[in-house]
Amino acid sequence: MKILKVCIIYDTKRGSTKQIAEWMKEGLMDARILVDLKKVDRVDNFAYDLFVIGSPIYWEKPLKSVVNFLSENKDKFKGKKVAVFVVCLAKLFGHFTDKHVKNHYLKPLKKKF
Ligand SMILES: Cc1cc2nc3c(=O)[nH]c(=O)nc-3n(C[C@H](O)[C@H](O)[C@H](O)COP(=O)(O)O)c2cc1C
């Protein structure tokens, strides 16, 4: 059986996105999946089966560091599985903000693929 290798990539300003990425890593490791956790400016290897890439939202946008990372490495993700996530406060308002989160927070990341 092929062993799945996952790379979780994040940036953070105040630490919560890093904490959430660490919890994701723990969950995947419990499922015996190989996981590397990398800050966005420390990624030097693209030999993974799945990338999970996350950014906090500040002033209605994901961090430039994450958006730029995706633009600069577009070709390296070709044919790879990529999941994106954001960490934000908007979800505190329940489903009323679902559309906003999708269109304004996730879309700038998803449209890079
Ligand atoms: C100055 C500032 C601006 C923020 N702007 C938004 C925003 O536009 N939308 C939102 O949903 N959350 C916003 N947040 C909440 C952050 O996304 C949230 O605190 C997140 O956990 C920060 O992630 P980090 O700790 O990884 O930096 C803002 C927080 C701060 C401090």
List keywords for this structure.
113 residues, alpha/beta, Rossmann fold, 3 helices, 27% strand, globular, binds flavin mononucleotide
In the CATH hierarchy, the third-tier topology is known as Rossmann fold
- Given as residue ranges, the uncertain stretches (5+ residues, pLDDT < 50) are none
Radius of gyration: 14 Å
Total strands? 5
Number of domains: 1
What's the end-to-end separation, in Å? 29 Å
**What's the helix count?**
3
Assign the CATH superfamily.
Flavodoxin domain
N to C succession of SSEs = EHEEEHEH
Q: Major beta sheet, specifics?
A: 5 strands, mixed
Class from secondary-structure proportions: alpha/beta
* Beta content: 25-35%
Protein described:
The chain is an alpha/beta fold. It has one domain (5-110): Flavodoxin domain (Rossmann fold). The chain contains 3 helices and 5 strands, in the order E-H-E-E-E-H-E-H. Strands 1, 2, 3, 4 and 5 form a 5-stranded mixed sheet that branches. Strand 1 (5-10), helix 1 and strand 2 (34-39) form a beta-alpha-beta unit. The longest helix is centred in the N-terminal third of the chain and has 15 residues, at 16-30. The protein is globular and about 45 Å long. The N and C termini lie far apart (29 Å). Bound molecules: flavin mononucleotide (FMN). Residues 12-17, 56-60, 87-90 line the site of flavin mononucleotide (FMN).
